[in-house]
User: What shape does this take?
Amino acid sequence: MIDDAIITVKELSKRYDGFAAVEDVSFDIKRGEIFGLLGPNGAGKSTIISILCCLLEPTAGRVTIDGFDVEKNSNEIKKIIGIVPQEISLYYTLTARENLTFYAKIYGLSGKTMKDRIEALLDMVGLTDRADDKLEGYSGGMKRRINIAVALLHNPRILFLDEPSTGVDPQSRKRIYDTIQDLNRQGMTVLLTTHQMEDAEKLCHRIAIVDKGKLIALDTLNGLLKMVGETDIIQVKAKDIPTEALDVIQRIDNVQKVSVDDESMTIELVQGRELMARIIETLTASGTKVESIQIKEPDLETLFLHLTGTKLRR
Ligand SMILES: Nc1ncnc2c1ncn2[C@@H]1O[C@H](COP(=O)(O)OP(=O)(O)OP(=O)(O)O)[C@@H](O)[C@H]1O
Ligand SMILES: [Mg+2]
Assistant: This one.
């Protein structure tokens, strides 16, 4: 356990009727850290975050938030955490200001304190000038920004965001990134889930990669990228790749792993650049119609492929 951990997750498991959605997951989050859970659809990210938010009971394991146990002290925890769920939970027939007022009253705010807080949050998410428009006319990204403002009404110390950039246009995404980073600079601990490597790369101090309910790697971005080591990734675009092509590529000495889907072949190998010409020749000779070939610098996508043999975006 790290000394300055504000969140500790120990041997956490969650089963739905025997199906293991989360299996023996352990990690700590430091106070003041932006921590990311990165993984494809169905990896177990929302399940983990829901348990941490006291919305779902674990099957096994122990989770503490600022010293409080999620199963015993959910009332204390709810006061110090803010939650931005994966599904937007707002009233589309109300304006942004009306939505914020509705939730602020639930949190017991009123009068000038409430008004000031709402104005400050509208400003923070950059929607002051749209505050009196109904949400039905908002873009996905603008709704997400209002949902973030709602999560901050009671001034939490820890913010949980489940897929903050899903369905969000680039402009809103930048605003959301800026908001998260500003909050973090002011001391907020942040846990976010994402299946987009850009979120993890741009925002997170440390990243836990999850797949099929298991935590398969956890480190800083640089630490994770080092795990890929000397491996290059070559992506070949081609339709109807014959199985012989897979065999001949696998037989090249430097090739470590090959995978094929409907429209591409992905090759992990060392000294990829030197071997590109040979790969095109070999594929063409085996009857593959190569449309394009590309070499990629190691990134989180490469690492995910390296660790699991499948692509991150599924
Ligand atoms: N209430 C439930 N009952 C049964 N199975 C469930 C339930 N909720 C989730 N699951 C299953 O548990 C697994 C993990 O789901 P979860 O929603 O945590 O994944 P996720 O990583 O958040 O995926 P996504 O990227 O699609 O949001 C999936 O296989 C899902 O089908
Ligand atoms: Mg999810």
